[in-house]
Specification:
alpha+beta; Alpha-Beta Plaits; 2 domains; 4-stranded antiparallel beta sheet; 7 helices
């Protein structure tokens, strides 16, 4: 190993330090995304719909801020510990430690938000639909030529978990046999029984305050 390689190795965090940095980063990421994953957990475990927990989404900026704060404090602690243990302080070594913590944290957040949450939301959506369907068998039987498909725009959604909460609210409305919400496009497709409900009734669905509903011209 030449002198440059020895210097680079000396200025790089050790394996143990990287492991600790990874733990801090993952913790910060989980805190930042808990408002999206938290409401899905009871549904996935089958212990209740927990639709009230979907209100956590309104505090999403606070959860993200708390996650970033954890990354910042973890970086300060790791650098402080690193400088205290090492005989010679290294700006490059400190910078790499901070970059490692924030890199793992942000990477984990993106993985959770755009991979894990959509996957878990899909399963939770199916569970809610199955549960609501068994509770409203008469509504399910109306899914034929006499049923009406209503299309709405839902504004205020920020993740796939939001869509599950809105779907649950629609399914609890009278006369609704199915509901599917796409958080990316903001479009909701709801099938109702015209004998017991009208399209305008869906505007009164018990969604969280941060969401707004409006009908579109695509309604059958």
């Amino acid at each position: 190993m030449n002198k440059n390689e020895k210097k680079a190795d000396k200025e790089s965090p050790t394996t143990d330090e990287k492991v600790h940095a990874g733990k801090y980063g993952i913790l910060g990421a989980f805190v930042a995304v808990i408002c999206c994953i938290g409401p899905l957990v009871p549904i996935l475990l089958g212990v209740g719909s927990a639709t009230a927990l979907f209100g956590l989404d309104r505090y999403k900026p606070w959860f993200i801020g708390l996650g970033l704060l954890i990354l910042g404090l973890a970086s300060w602690y790791a650098v402080h510990k690193q400088n205290r243990c090492c005989a010679e302080k290294s700006v490059a070594r400190n910078a790499r430690m901070v970059a490692t913590i924030f890199g793992i944290g942000i990477g984990t957040y993106l993985l959770l938000q755009y991979v894990a949450v959509p996957a878990l939301s899909s399963v939770a959506s199916s569970k809610i639909a199955a549960s609501q369907g068994s509770a409203n068998q008469s509504a399910e039987r109306s899914r034929n030529a006499e049923s009406q498909e209503v299309t709405l725009i839902v504004e205020g959604m920020t993740c796939a978990g939001c869509a599950v909460g809105v779907e649950a609210a629609f399914l609890e409305a009278p006369g609704v046999s199915s509901a599917k919400v796409d958080w990316k496009t903001g479009k909701a497709t709801v099938r109702i029984d015209p004998k017991t409900a009208q399209a305008e009734d869906l505007l009164n669905a018990d969604v969280e305050d941060q969401y707004s509903l409006r009908l579109t011209d695509e309604t059958e």
